[in-house]
Design brief:
Layout (H helix, E strand, L loop, with lengths): L20 E6 L4 H11 L7 E8 L2 E8 L2 H5 L2 H5 L5 E7 L14 E5 L2 E11 L2 H10 L11 H9 L5 H9 L4 E9 L2 E6 L8 E4 L8 E4 L2 H7 L2 E5 L5 E5 L2 E5 L9 E2 H7 L5 E2 L2 E2 H16 L5 E4 L5 H11 L7 E3 L12 H5 L6 E3 L1 H4 L3 E6 L6 H12 L4 E6 L27 H8 L3 E4 L2 H7 L12 E2 L1 H4 L26
Parallel strand pairs: 14-23, 17-20, 20-21, 21-22
Antiparallel strand pairs: 1-4, 1-10, 2-3, 2-4, 5-6, 6-7, 7-8, 8-12, 9-10, 9-11, 12-13, 15-16, 18-19
Helix pairs in contact: 1-7, 5-6, 9-10, 9-15
The structure holds 1-O-pyrophosphono-5-O-phosphono-alpha-D-ribofuranose (PRP), glutamine, iron/sulfur cluster and magnesium ion.
Catalytic activity: 5-phospho-beta-D-ribosylamine + L-glutamate + diphosphate = 5-phospho-alpha-D-ribose 1-diphosphate + L-glutamine + H2O
Enzyme class: transferase
Protein name: Amidophosphoribosyltransferase
């Protein structure tokens, strides 16, 4: 596999991109095959690269590649090369460090205590500072990801057990992390003290030895036939070994700051997050949006895929018919290389087409989950008008995205976010809509079952809407907001 320093397949870097997905199995006969399936269900969380490390009598085995899970693990011989009863896997969407084979996770290293594989979803906000210190101490970094600092902090820790070394490392990092780690004696699952990223515990049936499973989302438990046991808690380490599951809570202060954008966009709609199906939450957000900013119209049209559940909730609340006025081409993957500038200009049409029969002559309300740079909305509004819509109103099931994310979502720099430097009225003009409205921050919290946003203890991370960054942004470089971690080291 040839390494690349930039991602030539990344033709659409407008939106908030997915993050990463992690998965692990302890003590199942088909550990690697189950992990490949789990990663397939988590494909929406990262499409750049994927990897699995397995462990069995023959020690550790690893296979990684750039691309989609099916392409990397679709061959039975690859799965057969990953023997053992335990495995951990990772789908990557880079937040720190380029898209290259050396950055594909799980990261694996041989330590004094034996081998250890680590898979990380999230982003560390002091990784650059830690990396500088570690390099000064003689640590030789093999990748340019933030995640590698875990490996070195564990390696140099003076504690005796793997668990204590891991805790020692966790206490030095700032940022967001859901981890699955595997050594020859145990699998461990960790969520950062604020629980920014999700991680769930599940259990397989007797045919798979009642094996334990860790996964970013419940949709990955469903695909392997595992039962949901519980969410791993913020600041909790679950240690899974042949005696069962132990819970360790090494942090004194934990405050839930689960990423509210997981509800709005990132998680798969069939996943259950904190006890609530994501699909239901999205419909409730859509209904709240309809109550807040209803407008007379003939049809509700979702911007697929992510806008669909919110649009259904909107339509049901408003009592307006729901129509598929936009058809999404599912074969436009990240591998579509647009050959010329002229073709590139066609942009979103490669992905979305107007369904004229559903919208011609109608007053339509488009519902989408977010406006990031505004590229999608602008093109889609224009497309609706060309297809004969009489009026085009746009409703968004998140508040205006005014700030970048430094906790594991790859976002454009702040000045590229349309809402960071334009009012809603200006944005409506720019995208060409007859009207534009976003759900209010309090409305979003209401839809998630709260009274509104409690500024003292919001219970969620909502920094990309509020700028309230609860976890210190240690690596943020003065004037240039978007240099949080190891971006400066890309290509080293
Ligand atoms: O304002 P922009 O910069 O255009 O970004 C916002 C759009 O990007 C995302 O969708 P995307 O098409 O990436 O994926 P989806 O199919 O999951 O909705 C998001 O759901 C919005 O539709
Ligand atoms: N999106 C993520 O969770 C990425 C994990 C890690 N920060 C990386 O860049 O590889
Ligand atoms: S800044 Fe936004 S996307 Fe990032 S973790 Fe917080 S809520 Fe999620
Ligand atoms: Mg979308």
């Amino acid at each position: 596999m040839t390494e690349i320093t930039t991602n030539p397949f990344d033709t659409e870097d407008d939106a908030f991109h997915e993050e990463c997905g992690v998965f692990g199995v302890w003590n199942a006969p088909d550990a690697a095959a189950l992990t490949a399936l789990g990663l397939h269900a988590l494909q929406h969380r990262g499409q750049e690269a994927s990897g699995i490390v397995s462990h069995g009598e023959k020690g550790f085995r690893s296979h990684k590649g750039l691309g989609l899970v099916g392409d990397i693990f679709g061959d039975a011989r690859v799965i057969a090369s990953l023997p053992g009863r335990a495995a951990v896997g990772h789908n990557r969407y880079a937040t720190a460090g380029e898209t290259a084979l050396r950055n594909v996770q799980p990261l694996y290293a041989d330590f004094a205590f034996g081998g250890l594989a680590v898979a990380h979803n999230g982003n560390l906000t002091n990784a650059l500072a830690l990396r500088r210190q570690l390099v000064r101490r003689g640590c030789l970094f093999q990748s340019s990801t933030d995640s590698e600092v875990f490996v070195h902090l564990i390696a140099i820790s003076l504690y005796a057990t793997v668990q204590d070394r891991l805790i020692d490392a966790l206490k030095q990092v700032d940022g967001a992390y859901s981890l699955v780690a595997l050594h020859d004696g145990a699998m461990m699952g960790v969520r950062d003290p604020n629980g920014v990223r999700p991680l769930v515990l599940g259990r397989l049936g007797a045919d798979q030895n009642n094996a334990w499973v860790l996964a970013s989302e419940t949709c990955a438990l469903d695909i392997v036939g595992a039962e949901f046991v519980r969410d791993v808690e913020p600041g909790e380490i679950v240690v899974i070994d042949d005696t069962g599951v132990r819970s360790v809570k090494p942090f004194a202060n934990t405050a839930n700051r689960f990423c509210i954008f997981e509800y709005i966009y990132f998680a798969r709609p069939d996943s259950v997050v904190e006890g609530t199906p994501v699909y239901e939450s999205r419909k409730r957000i859509g209904a709240e949006l309809a109550r807040e900013s209803g407008v007379e119209a003939d049809v509700i049209v979702p911007v697929p895929d992510s806008g669909v559940p919110a649009a259904m909730g909107y339509a049901q609340e408003a009592g307006i018919p729901f129509e598929l006025g936009i058809i999404r081409n599912h074969y436009v993957g990240r591998t579509f290389i647009e050959p010329t500038d002229n073709i590139r200009h066609l942009g979103v049409k490669l992905k979305h087409s107007a369904n004229r029969a559903a919208i011609e002559g109608k007053r339509i309300i488009l519902v989408d989950d977010s406006i990031v740079r505004g590229t999608t909305s602008k093109k889609i509004v224009e497309m609706m008008r060309q297809a004969g819509a009489a009026e085009v109103h746009m409703r968004i099931s998140s508040p205006p995205t005014t700030h970048s994310c430094f906790y594991g979502i790859d976002t454009p720099e702040r000045d590229k976010l349309l809402a960071s430097n334009h009012s809603v009225e200006e944005m409506a003009r720019i995208i060409g809509a007859d009207s534009l409205a976003f759900i209010s921050l309090d409305g979003l919290y209401r839809a998630l079952g709260r009274k509104g946003r409690d500024a003292k203890d919001p219970g969620y991370c909502d920094a990309c809407f509020t700028g309230d960054y609860a976890i210190p942004l240690t690596d943020l470089v003065g004037h240039k907001e978007r240099e949080p971690a190891l971006l400066a080291l890309n290509g080293v």
